[in-house]
Amino acid sequence: MATVVVTGATGAIGSATAAALTERRAQVIPLSRPSFDLSSLASVRATARELNRGGGHIDVLLNIAAVYWPRFQKSADGLELMFTVNHLAPFLLTNLLRDRLVGGGRVITVTAPSTTRVDVDRLLDRDHFHAFHSFGATKAANLMFTFELARRAKRWDVRANAFHPGIVRSDLMGESPAPLRFATRFFARDPERAGQDLAELALSPAHAGTTGWFFKGTRRIDPPKSTLDTAHQAALWKRSAELVELEGGF
Fold it and tell me: Fewer CB within 10 Å, N- or C-terminus of the chain?
């Protein structure tokens, strides 16, 4: 039985994915508020300690949770909230669970094909905050993290891929302007399809050796060229590790 850790397990995509995984007889470890808070790096560390204490192999880590917030808001650690929840927290959690993923583990991060430039200094600066820019930058950061992780994790026999669910009916953009909320409701599809696709990528033997790919559904797509610069990927990794005070990791 595969063991799968799911962040954002009570959200639209997360709950649909957990249900799809359970149908396939996977052991699902759901992570969601209030016991797991991605806006607090201390909470991420505490959860990782608890998971590591349990021992045993984690076959898949699904980084699904994300937020959109229209105003600049600081996390519990004094860092911009969206950047923390959408990028820094999954970056930290993934690294802290390294030893339990070693030997065939898969890391799949839900994101989007964002072309927004990732400038960490701007993301942390209240005076330069723009909600759509910050959200787009975190999605681009997810891709850059995935590709850098795929390279680093080869020595540990861990795979890393990114997944774009398309426009899904959820509460994620509930704080966005009314026209966007209306358009999202009109074009969005039910989250069950995304859940089934994620379960397939997580558990199918066909994807056991796949790493460094970007998927829409179960089909490989090309990521934005702006996310493919390896020097920028490495620089983002280094800055992220400094911000979360990571020691060790991949």
Answer: N
